[in-house]
Specification:
The protein is mainly α and 732 residues long. Helix content is 55%, strand content 2%. Among the domains are: 5-31 and 42-217, no CATH class; 232-386 and 548-566 and 597-626, no CATH class. The strands form three sheets. A three-stranded mixed sheet has the order 1-5-6. Strands 2-3 form a two-stranded antiparallel ribbon. Strands 4-7 form a two-stranded parallel sheet. It binds zinc ion (ZN).
Length: 732
């Protein structure tokens, strides 16, 4: 469906707020439709330095007794949480301690706002606990409410205007605080390590650090790019001379649906080419101005360039190297999948794809960006005759309702000993779980935090199918996270990093998709499965999750290079294809080793370095949304799943054949829930590695779990690819 005018206005309201809506934007991809929303007041995360161990209550340099009352009480709360973990009274405990801290703080400290606006340690602490906490939470609540009201009634112009107004007011507030208090603060001048961490986060304002004219210009440019993407149309393949305005096809749902039908080689080639012209090439000059101004904003925040500002949210000195190492760990699995799929497609398109081809044409994988290959599953399934599990059919057979889907998902979280998500789908409390008939709404599924510690909602046009069932679990992952970190200070009420929020619900979804879980919830009568069915099911999962990895990695790798100036304007498109393809590179840039290909696909038609701008055919590039979080989350969710399965006694890494990781279901495991709880409670108050450690016992993100999960398929693919190689050798 074409984006409505009001959505575009909404989009412009989002742009008015520097880095707003990071989490919202995070979710416009990967899983087809889900979003985490904390209004437009999402707290920026970020630090140019690692702050490992800088958690609340962890001891930092001290300066004698009385200055550290807050730290002391925070330590007490933290100690309570670390060692006692009283499930039912933790929230209440923190609340009480928080109140004590505030009273204590009031009693001991007088406001000390010096003339130049720089606060001393006690005054800043007092300000953050009181005025800032209350004012920002209230503003966040108003913005989120107005935004919600707008999105569940998108044709109502009054509500659209009210949403924009609230957003702009809120942006003004942020900038006022930043200019008055945070801009000139130097974290190293503060002794309280927890205060230091908050300062680092609060001293980053994002794009709003630009002066008003430049911010307006950047906002306008990003809006225009988003508008080009959202309104681009393509004439139907059988009517290329159409009147574009009246007969052209928008991306959603038309082009996406055509691309999803396997086997239409020529139609897909035509659509791919036209879409990349309509959305990509038309914004190339705008993107140049966007890079320039974005970098200027990044410098105003103390970073070398915009890519560095984005990466700072991960608080790792060598984040680029870390991501590259992760990619190298999963690359062998991707390469085998790629080879197997290419061989299968050669059989299907024997005239179009040459037998000595090493790259897959980008348009034959069932998706405009070749980022999910699930739609071509019928062409590449290892055992097509094996009976497959049709979970969607099971819902109908067992007379399920949408409400029952939500209740069942909620039951999963509660079975782990976690919080009830009931308010998130309670329609009388404001939630929206079916598409209303009396008005238009933005159906894109999303999970909302109204910043008042009690109102959390899901907005979703749920359908009675398995995909929706998985999305519900995903959204409830966000709701659970919101609830668990709700007593953190405002600056910490967000995910440990942008990848974490997305990974929680998807971790749960890995259990939900197993036959044993469907059996537990009464959807399956028989638990028997065959090895062939198991390989098929892993193949389905790989076509979605493994096929995505190189794309998830390369989008920001390309942007980091562009922002840093490693690649010139003239070389932008060539550089994009350098990362997507294997050949044709003459680049001498320092961070671009020769032949380091990532996705191994090729453009279906010739590209022109001067005119084409293929990255602009991707939403996140057009809309100024970072992307590496998806890659991060895709690796993380398997690592979390593995650790929770071990805690649940459902997986033994020493005996993977006895019960493989992909068959593990953590349903009803209090031990798994306890681990998840203790990590999610922390919000962004500590470095994400600390959160990872709380849940998994490990301190580094690792691809070991995803490799273990897919091991049976990996072995199968290697074996089948070797057989194909032998046949080819015999033929030649
Ligand atoms: Zn999400």
């Amino acid at each position: 469906m074409l984006k409505s005018k009001t959505e575009l206005i909404f989009s412009s309201s989002k742009r008015a707020l520097n880095e707003v809506g990071t989490q919202r934007k995070l979710t416009l991809d990967c899983a087809p439709s889900h979003t985490a929303v904390k209004g437009n007041k999402l707290v920026r995360q970020g630090s140019s330095r690692p702050f490992i161990g800088a958690g609340p209550g962890e001891t930092g340099p001290r300066n004698g007794g009385e200055d550290h009352h807050v730290t002391f009480y925070f330590q007490l709360a933290y100690f309570w949480y670390l060692f006692l973990e009283p499930r039912y009274c933790l929230s209440e405990t923190i609340l009480i301690l928080t109140l004590v801290v505030r009273i204590d703080s009031k009693l001991h400290h007088q406001w000390n706002d010096s003339d130049n606006g720089v606060l001393d340690e006690d005054s800043l602490r007092d300000f953050l606990w009181n005025e800032y906490e209350q004012t920002e939470s209230k503003a966040c609540n108003i913005v989120t409410k107005k935004e919600w009201e707008h999105l569940v009634d998108i044709d109502n112009e009054w509500k659209a205007d009210a949403s924009i107004k609230a957003t702009l007011e809120s942006a003004k507030l942020d900038k006022m605080y930043w200019e008055k208090y945070f801009r000139n603060l130097n974290p190293s001048n503060f002794k309280d390590i927890n205060l230091r961490r908050q300062i680092v986060k609060l001293s980053r304002l994002g794009n709003s650090a630009l002066d008003d004219d430049e911010l307006a210009k950047l906002t306008n440019i990003t809006n225009k790019m988003t508008e080009i993407y959202s309104t681009a149309k393509v004439c139907p393949p059988d009517f290329p001379e159409c009147n574009l305005d009246e007969e052209g096809l928008p991306l959603e749902p038309d082009l996406i649906n055509i691309m999803a039908k396997p086997g239409l080689f020529e139609d897909h080639q035509y659509i791919w080419k036209e879409w990349h012209q309509a959305s990509g090439a038309n914004m190339k000059e705008l993107f140049r101005q966007y890079v320039e101004l974005s970098n200027k904003a990044a410098r105003a925040n103390g970073f070398h360039d915009k890519g560095a500002m984005w990466r700072s949210e991960y608080e790792c000195e060598n984040f680029e190297e870390d991501m590259k190492n992760l990619w190298m760990q999963v690359r062998p699995l991707y390469n085998e999948l790629h080879k197997y799929v290419l061989n299968s497609l050669m059989k299907k398109f024997d005239e179009e794809i040459m037998t000595n081809e090493t790259l897959i044409p980008a348009h034959v994988l069932g998706n405009m960006w070749a980022q999910s290959w699930l739609n071509i599953a019928p062409l590449v399934m290892p055992f097509p005759n094996e009976t497959k599990l049709d979970a969607t059919e099971l819902f109908r057979e067992h007379n399920w309702t949408v409400l029952k889907m939500f209740e069942t998902a909620d039951d999963f979280y509660q079975s782990l000993g976690l919080e009830s998500n009931e308010m998130s789908y309670n329609v009388s409390g404001g939630a929206l779980i079916v598409k209303p008939e009396d008005r238009n709404v933005v159906c894109h599924a999303s999970a909302w935090d109204f910043c008042d510690r009690k109102d959390f909602r899901i907005k979703m046009c749920t359908e009675l199918n398995f995909e929706s069932f998985v999305v519900i679990h995903h959204e409830m992952g966000h709701i659970q996270y919101y609830q668990l970190y709700k007593y953190q200070p405002y600056a910490y009420r967000t995910g440990a990093n942008p990848g974490f929020h997305e990974a929680i619900g998807d971790t749960i979804a890995l259990s939900v998709s197993t036959p044993s879980h469907l059996y537990s919830i009464g959807l399956l009568n028989d638990l028997r499965t065959t090895e062939k069915a198991s390989i098929n099911s892993l193949m389905n999962m790989a076509l979605e999750r493994i096929a995505f990895l190189p794309f998830g990695y390369l989008v920001d790798r390309w942007r980091w290079d562009v922002f840093r100036g490693d690649v010139s304007y003239a070389g932008w498109n060539r550089h994009w294809w350098h990362y997507r393809s294997l050949h044709n590179t003459n680049s001498k840039s320092r961070s671009i080793p020769f032949r380091e290909t990532i996705q191994k696909i090729k453009a279906p038609v010739e590209r022109n370095d001067e005119y084409d701008f293929d990255p602009g055919a991707k939403f996140h590039v057009a809309s100024d949304s970072q992307y590496i979080s998806y890659f991060f989350a895709h690796i993380l969710e398997f690592q979390l799943h593995r650790a929770l399965c071990i805690a649940a006694g459902e997986y033994n890494p020493k005996k993977p054949k006895k019960k493989p990781l992909h068959m593990c279901d953590i349903y009803k495991s209090k031990a798994a829930g306890k681990r998840l709880r203790r990590g999610l409670l922390l919000g962004a108050s500590v470095h994400w590695k600390k959160v990872l450690q709380k849940i998994t016992g490990e301190t580094t993100l690792s691809a070991r779990a995803i490799l273990e999960y897919f091991q049976p398929l990996f072995a199968y693919l290697i074996q089948e690819n070797q057989k194909t190689d032998q046949v080819v050798q015999q033929d030649t």
